[in-house]
Write a structure and sequence with these properties.
alpha+beta; Rossmann fold; 17 helices; 39% helix; binds histidyl-adenosine monophosphate
Length: 437
Amino acid sequence: MITKPKGTYDILPNESKKWAKLEDTIRKICNLYNYKEIRTPIFESFDVFHRDINDTSDMVTKETYDFLDRSERKITLRPEGTAGVARSFIENKLYVENPVNKLFYMGPMFRYERPQKGRNRQFNQFGVEAIGSSSPLIDAEVIALGASLIRALGLKDVKVKINTLGDEESRKNYKDVLVNHFSKYKDDLCPDCLNRLEKNPLRILDCKVDRDKDFFKSAPKINDYLNQESKDRFNKVLSALDDLEINYELDSNLVRGLDYYSHTVFELEVNVKEFGAQNVIGAGGRYDNLISDLGGPKTSAVGMAFGLERLLLATDLSGKKLVKDSFIHAYFISLGEEASKMSLKLMNVLRIGGLSCEMDYTSGSLKSQFKKADNNNALFTLILGENELKEFKINIKNNQTDEQETIGIYDVYPYIINKLNQNSACQMCNKKENNNE
Ligand code: HAM
Protein backbone atom coordinates (compact mmCIF):
# COMPACT_ATOMS: atom_id res chain seq x y z
CA MET A 1 0.00 0.00 0.00
CA ILE A 2 1.32 3.45 -0.89
CA THR A 3 0.84 5.79 2.05
CA LYS A 4 0.92 9.58 2.40
CA PRO A 5 4.30 11.28 2.96
CA LYS A 6 5.34 11.92 6.57
CA GLY A 7 3.91 15.14 7.98
CA THR A 8 0.97 15.30 5.56
CA TYR A 9 -2.65 14.26 6.03
CA ASP A 10 -5.86 13.89 4.04
CA ILE A 11 -8.91 16.04 4.61
CA LEU A 12 -11.68 13.45 4.30
CA PRO A 13 -15.29 14.21 3.32
CA ASN A 14 -16.53 14.29 6.93
CA GLU A 15 -14.00 17.07 7.70
CA SER A 16 -14.09 19.11 4.52
CA LYS A 17 -17.29 21.00 5.41
CA LYS A 18 -15.52 22.44 8.45
CA TRP A 19 -12.69 23.66 6.22
CA ALA A 20 -15.12 25.25 3.79
CA LYS A 21 -16.91 27.01 6.67
CA LEU A 22 -13.61 28.28 8.13
CA GLU A 23 -12.52 29.57 4.73
CA ASP A 24 -15.91 31.21 4.26
CA THR A 25 -15.66 32.94 7.67
CA ILE A 26 -12.17 34.19 6.77
CA ARG A 27 -13.37 35.56 3.44
CA LYS A 28 -16.23 37.44 5.14
CA ILE A 29 -13.88 39.02 7.67
CA CYS A 30 -11.37 39.99 4.96
CA ASN A 31 -14.23 41.62 3.11
CA LEU A 32 -15.15 43.67 6.23
CA TYR A 33 -11.56 44.91 6.48
CA ASN A 34 -11.31 45.43 2.71
CA TYR A 35 -8.51 42.92 2.06
CA LYS A 36 -8.47 41.53 -1.51
CA GLU A 37 -7.45 37.99 -2.35
CA ILE A 38 -4.13 37.26 -4.05
CA ARG A 39 -3.11 33.79 -5.27
CA THR A 40 0.58 33.21 -5.86
CA PRO A 41 2.35 30.00 -6.96
CA ILE A 42 2.99 27.20 -4.49
CA PHE A 43 6.57 27.04 -5.74
CA GLU A 44 8.83 30.02 -6.31
CA SER A 45 12.44 30.63 -7.30
CA PHE A 46 14.79 29.52 -4.51
CA ASP A 47 15.97 33.16 -4.11
CA VAL A 48 12.55 34.41 -3.01
CA PHE A 49 13.03 32.64 0.33
CA HIS A 50 16.85 32.47 0.49
CA ARG A 51 17.66 36.13 0.09
CA ASP A 52 20.22 36.70 2.76
CA ILE A 53 23.21 34.52 3.55
CA ASN A 54 23.02 35.84 7.12
CA ASP A 55 19.45 34.60 7.55
CA THR A 56 19.52 32.37 10.63
CA SER A 57 15.85 31.43 10.79
CA ASP A 58 15.19 27.69 11.06
CA MET A 59 12.60 27.98 8.34
CA VAL A 60 15.12 29.26 5.79
CA THR A 61 18.20 27.32 6.91
CA LYS A 62 16.74 23.91 7.68
CA GLU A 63 13.13 23.55 6.65
CA THR A 64 12.56 24.51 3.03
CA TYR A 65 11.82 21.93 0.35
CA ASP A 66 14.38 22.90 -2.31
CA PHE A 67 14.94 21.09 -5.59
CA LEU A 68 16.19 21.53 -9.12
CA ASP A 69 13.52 21.24 -11.77
CA ARG A 70 14.13 19.38 -15.05
CA SER A 71 15.83 22.46 -16.49
CA GLU A 72 18.08 22.76 -13.44
CA ARG A 73 16.27 25.82 -12.05
CA LYS A 74 16.51 26.16 -8.27
CA ILE A 75 12.99 25.95 -6.91
CA THR A 76 11.55 26.14 -3.38
CA LEU A 77 8.10 25.04 -2.21
CA ARG A 78 6.76 28.06 -0.37
CA PRO A 79 7.24 27.74 3.41
CA GLU A 80 5.12 30.87 4.03
CA GLY A 81 3.10 33.41 2.07
CA THR A 82 4.73 36.78 2.75
CA ALA A 83 7.83 36.55 0.53
CA GLY A 84 5.84 35.21 -2.45
CA VAL A 85 3.29 38.01 -2.09
CA ALA A 86 6.14 40.53 -1.90
CA ARG A 87 7.66 39.04 -5.07
CA SER A 88 4.31 39.32 -6.85
CA PHE A 89 3.77 42.88 -5.55
CA ILE A 90 7.09 43.93 -7.12
CA GLU A 91 6.77 41.93 -10.34
CA ASN A 92 3.21 43.15 -11.03
CA LYS A 93 3.99 46.70 -9.87
CA LEU A 94 0.91 46.70 -7.64
CA TYR A 95 2.15 49.95 -6.11
CA VAL A 96 1.46 51.85 -9.34
CA GLU A 97 -2.32 51.62 -9.07
CA ASN A 98 -2.74 51.71 -5.29
CA PRO A 99 -0.49 53.35 -2.73
CA VAL A 100 -1.69 50.80 -0.16
CA ASN A 101 -2.47 47.21 -1.12
CA LYS A 102 -4.38 45.16 1.44
CA LEU A 103 -4.05 41.53 0.37
CA PHE A 104 -5.05 38.15 1.77
CA TYR A 105 -4.29 34.55 0.79
CA MET A 106 -5.07 31.02 1.84
CA GLY A 107 -3.36 27.83 0.85
CA PRO A 108 -0.80 25.14 1.52
CA MET A 109 2.72 25.86 2.79
CA PHE A 110 5.60 23.39 3.16
CA ARG A 111 8.21 23.09 5.91
CA TYR A 112 10.45 20.13 6.59
CA GLU A 113 9.80 20.10 10.34
CA ARG A 114 9.52 17.28 12.86
CA PRO A 115 5.80 16.48 12.70
CA GLN A 116 3.76 16.63 15.90
CA LYS A 117 0.29 17.73 16.97
CA GLY A 118 -0.37 21.05 15.22
CA ARG A 119 2.87 20.81 13.20
CA ASN A 120 2.86 19.35 9.71
CA ARG A 121 5.14 19.36 6.70
CA GLN A 122 2.28 20.46 4.47
CA PHE A 123 -0.06 22.81 6.33
CA ASN A 124 -2.42 25.62 5.40
CA GLN A 125 -2.11 29.28 6.18
CA PHE A 126 -4.44 32.22 5.95
CA GLY A 127 -2.45 35.43 5.79
CA VAL A 128 -2.95 39.15 5.28
CA GLU A 129 -0.37 41.64 4.05
CA ALA A 130 -0.95 45.41 4.16
CA ILE A 131 1.71 46.83 1.87
CA GLY A 132 2.45 50.51 1.40
CA SER A 133 1.74 52.18 4.74
CA SER A 134 3.99 52.82 7.73
CA SER A 135 1.10 54.01 9.91
CA PRO A 136 1.02 52.40 13.38
CA LEU A 137 -2.77 52.31 12.96
CA ILE A 138 -2.52 49.68 10.23
CA ASP A 139 -0.46 47.43 12.57
CA ALA A 140 -3.38 47.67 14.99
CA GLU A 141 -5.89 47.00 12.21
CA VAL A 142 -4.08 43.78 11.23
CA ILE A 143 -4.20 42.59 14.85
CA ALA A 144 -7.87 43.63 15.06
CA LEU A 145 -8.62 41.51 11.99
CA GLY A 146 -7.03 38.54 13.78
CA ALA A 147 -9.09 39.29 16.89
CA SER A 148 -12.27 39.42 14.77
CA LEU A 149 -11.51 35.99 13.36
CA ILE A 150 -10.94 34.59 16.84
CA ARG A 151 -14.26 36.08 17.98
CA ALA A 152 -16.12 34.76 14.93
CA LEU A 153 -14.79 31.26 15.60
CA GLY A 154 -15.73 31.50 19.30
CA LEU A 155 -12.18 30.66 20.41
CA LYS A 156 -11.40 30.83 24.10
CA ASP A 157 -8.21 31.66 26.03
CA VAL A 158 -6.35 33.34 23.18
CA LYS A 159 -3.61 35.75 24.23
CA VAL A 160 -2.05 38.46 22.03
CA LYS A 161 1.66 38.82 22.82
CA ILE A 162 3.35 41.86 21.37
CA ASN A 163 6.80 43.43 21.20
CA THR A 164 8.77 45.88 19.09
CA LEU A 165 12.13 45.27 17.47
CA GLY A 166 12.46 48.99 16.80
CA ASP A 167 14.07 50.59 13.77
CA GLU A 168 17.48 49.74 12.36
CA GLU A 169 19.36 52.12 14.66
CA SER A 170 17.65 50.72 17.78
CA ARG A 171 18.29 47.14 16.68
CA LYS A 172 21.94 47.91 16.02
CA ASN A 173 22.35 49.36 19.55
CA TYR A 174 20.58 46.40 21.04
CA LYS A 175 22.49 43.83 18.99
CA ASP A 176 25.79 45.24 20.26
CA VAL A 177 24.82 44.87 23.92
CA LEU A 178 23.33 41.42 23.28
CA VAL A 179 26.56 40.22 21.67
CA ASN A 180 28.45 41.63 24.61
CA HIS A 181 26.20 39.83 27.04
CA PHE A 182 26.01 36.43 25.36
CA SER A 183 29.71 36.38 24.42
CA LYS A 184 30.42 35.90 28.13
CA TYR A 185 28.51 32.62 28.01
CA LYS A 186 29.79 31.19 24.73
CA ASP A 187 30.60 27.85 26.36
CA ASP A 188 26.99 27.46 27.53
CA LEU A 189 25.26 28.44 24.29
CA CYS A 190 23.69 25.74 22.10
CA PRO A 191 25.28 25.34 18.61
CA ASP A 192 22.39 27.24 16.95
CA CYS A 193 22.81 30.18 19.32
CA LEU A 194 26.55 30.26 18.76
CA ASN A 195 25.82 30.67 15.07
CA ARG A 196 23.16 33.31 15.80
CA LEU A 197 25.64 35.20 17.99
CA GLU A 198 27.65 35.87 14.85
CA LYS A 199 24.88 36.32 12.31
CA ASN A 200 21.73 37.51 14.08
CA PRO A 201 22.09 37.81 17.88
CA LEU A 202 18.46 38.92 18.30
CA ARG A 203 17.30 35.46 17.34
CA ILE A 204 19.04 33.97 20.39
CA LEU A 205 16.04 35.27 22.34
CA ASP A 206 13.87 32.88 20.31
CA CYS A 207 15.89 29.83 21.43
CA LYS A 208 13.86 27.02 23.01
CA VAL A 209 17.03 25.26 24.28
CA ASP A 210 18.73 28.08 26.22
CA ARG A 211 15.52 29.83 27.28
CA ASP A 212 15.54 28.72 30.95
CA LYS A 213 19.20 29.36 31.67
CA ASP A 214 20.05 32.20 34.08
CA PHE A 215 22.25 34.11 31.64
CA PHE A 216 19.30 34.10 29.25
CA LYS A 217 16.93 35.59 31.79
CA SER A 218 19.44 38.30 32.73
CA ALA A 219 19.94 39.35 29.09
CA PRO A 220 19.34 43.05 28.35
CA LYS A 221 15.84 43.97 27.15
CA ILE A 222 15.17 45.73 23.86
CA ASN A 223 12.94 48.35 25.45
CA ASP A 224 16.01 49.94 27.07
CA TYR A 225 17.72 50.40 23.70
CA LEU A 226 14.90 51.80 21.55
CA ASN A 227 15.40 55.30 20.19
CA GLN A 228 12.64 57.84 20.83
CA GLU A 229 11.09 57.42 17.38
CA SER A 230 10.75 53.65 17.79
CA LYS A 231 9.32 54.06 21.30
CA ASP A 232 6.76 56.60 20.08
CA ARG A 233 5.75 54.38 17.19
CA PHE A 234 5.22 51.37 19.41
CA ASN A 235 3.21 53.43 21.91
CA LYS A 236 0.93 54.51 19.07
CA VAL A 237 0.31 50.86 18.12
CA LEU A 238 -0.49 50.00 21.74
CA SER A 239 -2.75 53.03 22.14
CA ALA A 240 -4.70 52.04 18.99
CA LEU A 241 -5.10 48.53 20.40
CA ASP A 242 -6.40 50.05 23.63
CA ASP A 243 -8.91 52.11 21.63
CA LEU A 244 -10.06 48.94 19.90
CA GLU A 245 -10.33 47.21 23.29
CA ILE A 246 -7.92 44.47 22.30
CA ASN A 247 -6.11 42.94 25.28
CA TYR A 248 -2.43 42.24 24.83
CA GLU A 249 0.56 41.23 26.86
CA LEU A 250 3.98 42.87 26.36
CA ASP A 251 6.72 40.27 25.86
CA SER A 252 10.22 41.69 25.50
CA ASN A 253 11.66 38.30 24.46
CA LEU A 254 9.35 37.96 21.47
CA VAL A 255 11.49 38.27 18.32
CA ARG A 256 9.71 35.79 15.97
CA GLY A 257 11.30 33.03 13.93
CA LEU A 258 11.72 34.91 10.66
CA ASP A 259 14.46 37.41 9.98
CA TYR A 260 12.56 40.04 8.01
CA TYR A 261 10.81 41.84 10.88
CA SER A 262 11.29 45.38 12.18
CA HIS A 263 9.19 47.38 14.70
CA THR A 264 5.96 45.56 15.72
CA VAL A 265 5.97 41.77 16.16
CA PHE A 266 3.17 39.74 17.70
CA GLU A 267 1.88 36.23 18.28
CA LEU A 268 -1.55 34.86 19.14
CA GLU A 269 -1.33 32.01 21.56
CA VAL A 270 -3.99 29.53 22.71
CA ASN A 271 -3.62 28.65 26.36
CA VAL A 272 -5.50 25.37 26.61
CA LYS A 273 -3.62 22.37 28.03
CA GLU A 274 -4.95 19.88 25.47
CA PHE A 275 -3.61 22.03 22.65
CA GLY A 276 -0.03 20.86 23.14
CA ALA A 277 3.26 22.64 22.53
CA GLN A 278 2.39 24.18 19.15
CA ASN A 279 0.02 26.70 20.68
CA VAL A 280 0.75 29.73 18.48
CA ILE A 281 -2.23 29.92 16.14
CA GLY A 282 -1.21 33.09 14.35
CA ALA A 283 1.63 35.55 14.20
CA GLY A 284 3.02 38.44 12.27
CA GLY A 285 4.62 41.82 12.30
CA ARG A 286 6.05 44.69 10.33
CA TYR A 287 8.61 44.09 7.59
CA ASP A 288 9.71 47.43 6.16
CA ASN A 289 12.80 46.10 4.35
CA LEU A 290 11.59 42.91 2.69
CA ILE A 291 10.24 44.50 -0.50
CA SER A 292 13.44 46.47 -1.11
CA ASP A 293 15.56 43.41 -0.20
CA LEU A 294 13.73 41.58 -2.98
CA GLY A 295 14.60 44.32 -5.45
CA GLY A 296 11.43 46.41 -5.16
CA PRO A 297 10.94 50.04 -4.14
CA LYS A 298 11.39 50.92 -0.46
CA THR A 299 7.94 50.00 0.87
CA SER A 300 6.58 49.66 4.41
CA ALA A 301 4.45 46.62 5.13
CA VAL A 302 2.82 44.68 7.93
CA GLY A 303 1.07 41.32 7.97
CA MET A 304 0.03 38.24 9.83
CA ALA A 305 -0.67 34.57 9.15
CA PHE A 306 -2.72 31.91 10.90
CA GLY A 307 -2.30 28.14 10.68
CA LEU A 308 -5.69 26.79 9.58
CA GLU A 309 -5.08 23.37 11.16
CA ARG A 310 -4.37 25.05 14.50
CA LEU A 311 -7.44 27.28 14.15
CA LEU A 312 -9.63 24.20 13.60
CA LEU A 313 -8.03 22.38 16.52
CA ALA A 314 -8.65 25.42 18.74
CA THR A 315 -12.28 25.57 17.54
CA ASP A 316 -12.80 21.89 18.40
CA LEU A 317 -11.28 22.37 21.85
CA SER A 318 -13.50 25.39 22.48
CA GLY A 319 -16.45 23.07 21.95
CA LYS A 320 -17.73 25.18 19.08
CA LYS A 321 -19.35 23.31 16.21
CA LEU A 322 -18.42 25.14 13.03
CA VAL A 323 -21.01 23.35 10.90
CA LYS A 324 -24.41 21.92 11.70
CA ASP A 325 -25.05 18.27 10.90
CA SER A 326 -25.45 17.86 7.17
CA PHE A 327 -28.70 16.57 5.66
CA ILE A 328 -30.40 16.07 2.32
CA HIS A 329 -33.98 16.92 1.38
CA ALA A 330 -34.99 13.62 -0.20
CA TYR A 331 -33.77 10.04 -0.38
CA PHE A 332 -35.28 7.78 -3.05
CA ILE A 333 -35.79 4.07 -2.39
CA SER A 334 -36.72 2.23 -5.54
CA LEU A 335 -37.69 -1.39 -6.14
CA GLY A 336 -36.82 -2.67 -9.60
CA GLU A 337 -34.99 -1.25 -12.59
CA GLU A 338 -37.86 0.84 -13.99
CA ALA A 339 -38.49 2.41 -10.56
CA SER A 340 -34.79 3.25 -10.25
CA LYS A 341 -34.82 4.95 -13.67
CA MET A 342 -37.87 6.99 -12.65
CA SER A 343 -36.20 7.95 -9.34
CA LEU A 344 -33.19 9.27 -11.24
CA LYS A 345 -35.55 11.43 -13.37
CA LEU A 346 -37.45 12.71 -10.33
CA MET A 347 -34.20 13.60 -8.57
CA ASN A 348 -33.25 15.66 -11.58
CA VAL A 349 -36.45 17.70 -11.26
CA LEU A 350 -35.92 18.22 -7.53
CA ARG A 351 -32.30 19.25 -8.00
CA ILE A 352 -33.21 21.79 -10.67
CA GLY A 353 -35.60 23.22 -8.06
CA GLY A 354 -32.78 23.47 -5.50
CA LEU A 355 -33.54 20.38 -3.38
CA SER A 356 -30.71 18.01 -2.53
CA CYS A 357 -31.36 14.30 -3.08
CA GLU A 358 -29.80 10.90 -3.25
CA MET A 359 -30.80 7.34 -4.19
CA ASP A 360 -29.30 3.88 -3.79
CA TYR A 361 -27.15 2.77 -6.72
CA THR A 362 -26.18 -0.60 -5.29
CA SER A 363 -29.57 -2.46 -5.58
CA GLY A 364 -29.55 -3.01 -1.82
CA SER A 365 -32.45 -4.58 0.11
CA LEU A 366 -35.37 -2.43 1.26
CA LYS A 367 -33.95 -2.50 4.80
CA SER A 368 -30.49 -1.37 3.72
CA GLN A 369 -32.00 1.42 1.60
CA PHE A 370 -33.94 2.72 4.61
CA LYS A 371 -30.72 2.67 6.58
CA LYS A 372 -28.99 4.73 3.91
CA ALA A 373 -31.83 7.28 3.98
CA ASP A 374 -31.19 7.52 7.71
CA ASN A 375 -27.42 7.83 7.32
CA ASN A 376 -27.90 10.63 4.82
CA ASN A 377 -30.13 12.43 7.34
CA ALA A 378 -32.91 12.76 4.73
CA LEU A 379 -35.87 15.02 5.56
CA PHE A 380 -38.13 12.91 3.29
CA THR A 381 -37.83 9.30 2.17
CA LEU A 382 -39.60 8.40 -1.09
CA ILE A 383 -40.43 4.80 -1.85
CA LEU A 384 -41.17 3.78 -5.40
CA GLY A 385 -42.25 0.17 -6.12
CA GLU A 386 -43.35 -1.38 -9.40
CA ASN A 387 -47.06 -1.19 -8.47
CA GLU A 388 -46.87 2.50 -7.52
CA LEU A 389 -44.98 3.22 -10.73
CA LYS A 390 -47.79 1.69 -12.84
CA GLU A 391 -50.24 4.09 -11.19
CA PHE A 392 -47.82 7.05 -11.33
CA LYS A 393 -47.86 7.20 -7.53
CA ILE A 394 -45.11 7.31 -4.93
CA ASN A 395 -44.97 6.89 -1.13
CA ILE A 396 -43.41 9.75 0.77
CA LYS A 397 -42.42 9.68 4.42
CA ASN A 398 -41.75 12.82 6.43
CA ASN A 399 -38.87 11.74 8.65
CA GLN A 400 -39.45 14.53 11.16
CA THR A 401 -43.06 13.55 11.91
CA ASP A 402 -43.09 9.91 10.64
CA GLU A 403 -46.21 10.91 8.66
CA GLN A 404 -46.52 8.84 5.43
CA GLU A 405 -48.65 9.55 2.34
CA THR A 406 -49.09 8.31 -1.22
CA ILE A 407 -48.99 11.14 -3.75
CA GLY A 408 -48.80 11.56 -7.53
CA ILE A 409 -45.33 11.12 -9.00
CA TYR A 410 -45.38 14.59 -10.51
CA ASP A 411 -46.47 16.20 -7.24
CA VAL A 412 -43.26 15.35 -5.38
CA TYR A 413 -41.56 18.70 -5.88
CA PRO A 414 -44.52 20.95 -4.90
CA TYR A 415 -45.35 18.59 -2.02
CA ILE A 416 -41.90 18.93 -0.45
CA ILE A 417 -41.70 22.68 -1.06
CA ASN A 418 -45.15 23.13 0.57
CA LYS A 419 -44.13 21.14 3.60
CA LEU A 420 -40.90 23.10 3.98
CA ASN A 421 -42.78 26.41 3.72
CA GLN A 422 -45.62 25.34 6.05
CA ASN A 423 -43.11 24.59 8.73
CA SER A 424 -41.38 27.92 8.42
CA ALA A 425 -40.97 28.26 12.18
CA CYS A 426 -39.89 24.72 12.80
CA GLN A 427 -36.71 22.77 12.71
CA MET A 428 -37.40 21.54 9.20
CA CYS A 429 -37.32 25.03 7.76
CA ASN A 430 -34.16 25.89 9.65
CA LYS A 431 -32.70 22.84 8.03
CA LYS A 432 -33.78 24.12 4.67
CA GLU A 433 -31.68 27.25 5.26
CA ASN A 434 -28.75 25.42 6.79
CA ASN A 435 -28.32 23.38 3.70
CA ASN A 436 -26.65 26.33 2.06
CA GLU A 437 -23.79 26.39 4.60
P1 HAM B 1 4.93 31.90 11.05
O1 HAM B 1 4.92 32.24 12.50
O2 HAM B 1 6.09 31.19 10.53
O3 HAM B 1 4.73 33.28 10.28
O4 HAM B 1 3.63 31.09 10.68
C1 HAM B 1 2.34 31.60 10.95
C2 HAM B 1 1.46 30.51 11.51
O5 HAM B 1 1.45 29.37 10.64
C3 HAM B 1 1.93 29.94 12.84
O6 HAM B 1 1.52 30.77 13.91
C4 HAM B 1 1.23 28.59 12.88
O7 HAM B 1 -0.11 28.75 13.31
C5 HAM B 1 1.23 28.19 11.41
N1 HAM B 1 2.31 27.22 11.15
C6 HAM B 1 3.62 27.47 10.93
N2 HAM B 1 4.29 26.33 10.71
C7 HAM B 1 3.41 25.32 10.80
C8 HAM B 1 3.49 23.90 10.66
N3 HAM B 1 4.62 23.29 10.37
N4 HAM B 1 2.35 23.16 10.80
C9 HAM B 1 1.18 23.77 11.08
N5 HAM B 1 1.04 25.12 11.21
C10 HAM B 1 2.13 25.87 11.08
C11 HAM B 1 4.71 33.38 8.93
O8 HAM B 1 4.60 32.43 8.18
C12 HAM B 1 4.72 34.80 8.44
N6 HAM B 1 4.68 34.75 6.97
C13 HAM B 1 3.57 35.58 9.00
C14 HAM B 1 3.51 36.97 8.50
C15 HAM B 1 2.72 37.44 7.53
N7 HAM B 1 4.29 37.96 8.88
C16 HAM B 1 4.00 39.03 8.17
N8 HAM B 1 3.05 38.69 7.32
